[in-house]
Structure prediction request, 324 residues.
Amino acid sequence: MLRTKRIIDARYQLAVYAYLHACDQELLALKPGNVGVHAAGHDMTLEQFQISARVSAEPLSDPGAVLGQRIYFAANATRDAVGCNTNLGIILLCAPLVQAFFMTQSTLDLRQALIQIIHDSTVEDAQFCYRAIRLVGPGGLGKNDVQDVRDVPDKTLFQVMSLAAERDQIASQYASGFADIFEFAIPHLAELRQHFISQDNWAITALYLGLLARYPDTHIFRKHGKEQANKVSRMAQQLEKDLLAQGQTDTVQTQLRQADKDFKQAGINPGTTADLVVATLFAEQLIGIACGEEMEASPHFLQEVVQPFFSTKTHLKEVEYGCN
Prediction:
């Protein structure tokens, strides 16, 4: 029993580490229209996103939680800490990935486990998810005739996400087994890392632009309409092309910063695309952990993010110092 508990606690720590690292990496990259180390925006600050990552990490990675509980309690912790919607999309995408990670001790790989978890989701999971969405109140939600988020759902989380898949990118991931992440984003990020050797922040910027260019952001669509979402995607396509062709030159950086300024002045926030970036980074790291790869991290991340988080979790020290 002690050995089982220690294994669970160790996997919890690895999941938290990977989640915090993914959130930190995304904030370090220049992503036009999003909050990060380069600029605040949309009445939100870098610090709010950093706090959101820290407070959501524990409930999201709770080994004993079911899928819907992960979503609701992580969203609730964020709401209590920062009072606004900084990471609901991230939570919705990362919750099933965490659950899948706890299953990869079996013969299932991460995506197989993910698909099984989503397909096995319950009505209770959907009810917890709807409570989280109502609590956070993301912008641009319309009224739907079937399984509206303001009602109590009577279908499973997989079923309600499938119903919303055509109008919402995050719901589409649930319906497709995270196809955009596993079939495009993760392999594309590997290619970008070869292109931007030892310049991970620029690889992540290029990933963000690539996702935005290929998949019009549904957060923009809900708030500003289809035409604006498509226009932003065309702009991202050109920025991606320039970045890949010219590298991070002063000219390209100026273009990216100007796009960031223009988007924010117009109230355009490709937030769902940024959520997909975090989920991609998180999934990539979980796959690496399952394969026995060593996680790399900067001194900044270890000292400013990891050490403060785990120094408050004294009950986890038994993993390091417990009896055999």
Notes: DSSP finds 16 helices and no strands in the chain. The domain at 2-319 is CATH 1.10.4200.10 (Triphosphoribosyl-dephospho-CoA protein). The two ends are 11 Å apart (CA to CA). The chain has a mean pLDDT of 88.
